[in-house]
Amino acid sequence: MGSLGQLVLMRLRVLWRQPEVFFWTFIFPIVTTLVLGLAFRNESLSPVRVAVTDGPGAPALLARLEGTPELEAQVLDAAEARRMLARGRVSLVLVPGDLSPEALVDPSQPEGRTARLLVSQALARAPDAPRLEAVKTTPVSEPGNRYIDFLIPGLLGMSLMSSSLWALAVPLVSMRGGKLLKRLAGTPMSRSHFFLAFLLGRTVFAVLEVAFFCAFARWLFGVPMFGSYFALLGVGLLGAMCFASLALLVSIRARNEESVGGLVNLVSMPMMFLSGVFFASENFPGWMQPLIRALPLTALNDSLRSIMLEGTSLMTLGMPMAVLAAWTVLPMVAALRWFRWV
């Protein structure tokens, strides 16, 4: 075998000794295909959700709509019905009237037109029903139910996760590889202060991160904020601390700077698909939901969306906050217990 063959054989042996190369080349595409296949599997269409505002005539309208299997109707007060329409939870709001009902639809919602046709057909079955064109349709467009409104909180959560993992795990592994951690361990430096400095620096950067996302989302896309900015900041800081703890844990396992990138991706990539960054996590089958709900990025994204788009207070986010707290404390304790300085 010539020199070229020996060099090629050497490269193949180097690749064989790096299992992360085989993982990202062969295993990761298969896993990604399976996960996305579960999220976007073919299913029968679910009923179109419609709200009827409470008042005189609402029970009669509800009785007519309940005879249509393609519709799922419920009676709500006017304010709640409009809020549900603005959040995309219902496709149409039907307001009873003296002569004919009024249909409130959001033109940005794809199911709005379908809902109007189904409602008109359901009402037309009654002998004294108004004509199809007599049902007044009023376009209602409010921020909060667009895809960009759904996307921004997910991107903020993903950004907090990625920046925390990369900003802590990579420098720690690099410092260990350069023997800097070993030198620092031999100084009078408090080891707790060393980790605290990393976490406090991450906190300051997270504040800037949350402020930047809120500013550009508001100015460029008009993304609303129905909740408290302080609540959003508190959730963002807890999320940053959570993934900082995971970064410390990753830095223990990484042997060198080449492997830390693969471990960070191994931690973050599944959550990017499962935790509702680009599409709702409810797309996955029911048997996966307990696992998805236990992921820290799911809890972070759900909390950010609830505050921004629903106006939810921190007091009502008990379960997501508990999940984030658990993912903050447990990895931190494990990382401090088994952290390697050399």
From TrEMBL:
Q: Which UniProt keywords apply?
A: Membrane, Transmembrane, Transmembrane helix
Which spans are transmembrane here?
A: 21-40, 150-173, 194-221, 227-250, 262-281, 317-339
- Localization, UniProt: Membrane
User: In what way does this protein cross or attach to the membrane?
Assistant: Multi-pass membrane protein
Domain of life per record: Bacteria
**Gene Ontology MF terms:** ABC-type transporter activity
Give the InterPro entries listed for this entry: ABC-2_transporter, ABC2_TM, ABC2_TM_bact-type
GO CC annotations on file: membrane
Tell whether Cell membrane is among the UniProt keywords.
no
Q: ABC transmembrane type-2 domain: from which residue to which, for each copy?
A: 112-342
Q: Which PANTHER family match?
A: DOXORUBICIN RESISTANCE ABC TRANSPORTER PERMEASE PROTEIN DRRC-RELATED, TRANSPORT PERMEASE PROTEIN
Protein name per the record: ABC transporter permease
